Amino acid sequence: MLRSNFIRDSVWPFLFILLACPLAAEQANVPEDNRDEPTDKVDKILEGHSFHGDVFNEGPRQKAYLMGGTGQVQFPISTADPVVQKFFDQGLGQFYGFWYLEAERSFRHAASLDPDCAMAYWGAAMANLKNLDRAKGFLEEAVARKDNADERERMYIDALNAYVKFDSKEKEKRNDSYTKSLENILLKYPDDLEAKALLALHLYEAKSSSTSYFAANALLEDIFEVEPMHSAHHFRIHFWDRRQPEMALGSAALCGQSSPSIAHMWHMPGHIYSRLHRYHDAAWQQEASARVDHAHMIHDQVMPDEIHNFAHNNEWLIRNLIHIGRVHDAIDLAKNMIELPRHPRYNTLAKNGSTTFGRQRLFQVLRTYEQWDVLIDLANSTYLEPTDDESEQIKRLRYLGLAYFQTGNTEAGKAQIAELERRLETLKAEADSLTESPSEDTDKEEGKKLAEKARKELQSKTKNLETAIKALKGHEAIANQDFQKGYELLKGASDVDSVYLAKVQWQSGDHDAATKALRKIVDSSKNEVYPLAALVEILWLSGKEVECKSAFDQLRQLSAQIDLDIPQFARLTPISKELGFMDDWRIRWQVADDVGERPSLDSLGPFRWYPSQAPNWALNDVQGKQHASTDFQGKPYVVIFYLGSGCLHCAEQLQAFAPRVTEFEEAGLGMLAISTDDPKTLKQSIENYDEVGLPIPLVSDEPLNVFKAFRVYDDFEAQPLHGTFLIDGNGKVRWQDISYQPFMDPGFVLAEAKRLLSQDADPRAN
């Protein structure tokens, strides 16, 4: 993490770092007066790994920049460098916005500029409180530098050090102790605004049944009296979110504006507006958040789901778009979430990232707004493709069957039922074969527990399948105009759209009960246009013109952003004419006067994420032949950043990828490795592969210019990192992995490349 310089010794093939500060030198066992001699301890540090221990391996390792718009934070620290102070304040503002990745980057950057600054490490620890092992590691560095801090700073360090050392089972004691430590800081330094902010945040995160919301609110008011645009508006929103959201309307109007560069700060007011059923305002906030995140990730070459709140914001935005009738944008954003790069660490179907949420919301919006042809189309694409996840595949078959029945393709619908029934029979056979008899290697009690667990899992899977089959048989009955049977079957199945069920009930002839059910749904779904549009339609079909007009008037008040070409709304156009409204019956939305000054959304960033442009490069191989990014114009390729012939992990990576080069080529993908070696040592890497030779072209980037351009470089320790990239034919970075260790799964890269690149040729991706 600390400033350092490269050296290369011809005797050793490894890269070594000369550490800039005394403590770092001590950690690496390098005497200050003899640092040019590599030691055994340094020699054992793996390429790409931090020279300060495991805690520094993870997290951001590229330098920060002063981005502005991260909050009105003033936390004076002991440093002679005013730039260090600016990065520290930026990091704290980012921390207040729960932007932990960038907060850590700012704090680590501050430490790289002033290695003796204790509070820079305290900040990095704060940014990792969700990962106590890393927090402890950073805090150890802060404690080691306490002599460089003043009394106030030492109180902060001691308070956090005591907090992270508490036994995890003693949460109440730990939280109480930390509360008192922060209060002690305030007793001695009553004007310390950030101590009040940190105390307010801690009271929220540690809240219990005895926590006084009014006391916490009063503490926040003390902050706003001094600094009206303080980032602590974020904390007040969290406090009142689920209890009395009206109490945080003032903060909702200022939160995003207080820290406009932090996406999550735009998102948070959406909590309050959603709770108050102000979905247009909520959607605006969440769209602002999405756009700010997209702009940041595109600019800084960060993969989307590396930002931990990103997927959460976008899936909530889609829900609110559904509520206000922005159906096309909801579909577009859900598809974009599925299109995003996947990574085993943070975005797969098994994790709550963009892939999971995007697929979930795409199914929801397509079903809600009767987009049956689109659903069938997307089910035959990478968007809603078959999956090995059993519950997700059952859901896919159920939705696909529904779409087929709704479009009149009953045979295709029945095929989905047949597939579900086949799965059910397989599951029942598995259940029949399950025995309570433990194996010889398992004691009787343990065997019973395992058998019971297996039975419960099978019961859950069986119920899921039986429900899906019942629902599809209900839809089959409806397709055959047997609405009564369809209603009875759907009523007994879970996860059935209640609005749709009420409409089926009406079609079965039970008009009064159906209308009553719809009114109840409308009342419980305040300001949502979908159930209200259904009520308008049912009231009209029931001949209740006066009631229909009243409901239509209510719908029009919410109609500003409705997509009129969507079936539910298109069916209302002839009704609107009969009631005396215009063909375009929507009413322009009037922005409320309590939402603060809002910038134009386009000024914040793009609605959709798109990949960044890869840097151009031109490098020579061992024979002096030049290879360049222009060679791959129109052809996608994988580039591996290789840390020299002495890196055993890199050699293992090449040995994993090399045998599959033909598969990549058959998929239309080139492959190349960029090495830190000079041309002479590059030859050794090639000769070390095997007698046949390395099938991956290997080029030299000894000055590390290309490493740095791709950000495959630790700016804090001045050393190269491991990197694997997928670059498309237009020179865009479609996927990347930058880490202290190489990415070892060529199968994942190949499959992901095929998925991502197939979107380019698919008009459904546009």
Automatic annotation (TrEMBL):
<dbReference type="InterPro" id="IPR000866">
    <property type="entry name" value="AhpC/TSA"/>
</dbReference>
<feature type="region of interest" description="Disordered">
    <location>
        <begin position="430"/>
        <end position="449"/>
    </location>
</feature>
<protein>
    <submittedName>
        <fullName>Alkyl hydroperoxide reductase</fullName>
    </submittedName>
</protein>
<keyword id="KW-0732">Signal</keyword>
<dbReference type="InterPro" id="IPR013766">
    <property type="entry name" value="Thioredoxin_domain"/>
</dbReference>
<dbReference type="Pfam" id="PF00578">
    <property type="entry name" value="AhpC-TSA"/>
</dbReference>
<dbReference type="GO" id="GO:0016491">
    <property type="term" value="F:oxidoreductase activity"/>
</dbReference>
<feature type="signal peptide">
    <location>
        <begin position="1"/>
        <end position="25"/>
    </location>
</feature>
<dbReference type="GO" id="GO:0006950">
    <property type="term" value="P:response to stress"/>
</dbReference>
<feature type="domain" description="Thioredoxin">
    <location>
        <begin position="608"/>
        <end position="758"/>
    </location>
</feature>
<dbReference type="GO" id="GO:0016209">
    <property type="term" value="F:antioxidant activity"/>
</dbReference>
<dbReference type="InterPro" id="IPR011990">
    <property type="entry name" value="TPR-like_helical_dom_sf"/>
</dbReference>
<dbReference type="InterPro" id="IPR036249">
    <property type="entry name" value="Thioredoxin-like_sf"/>
</dbReference>
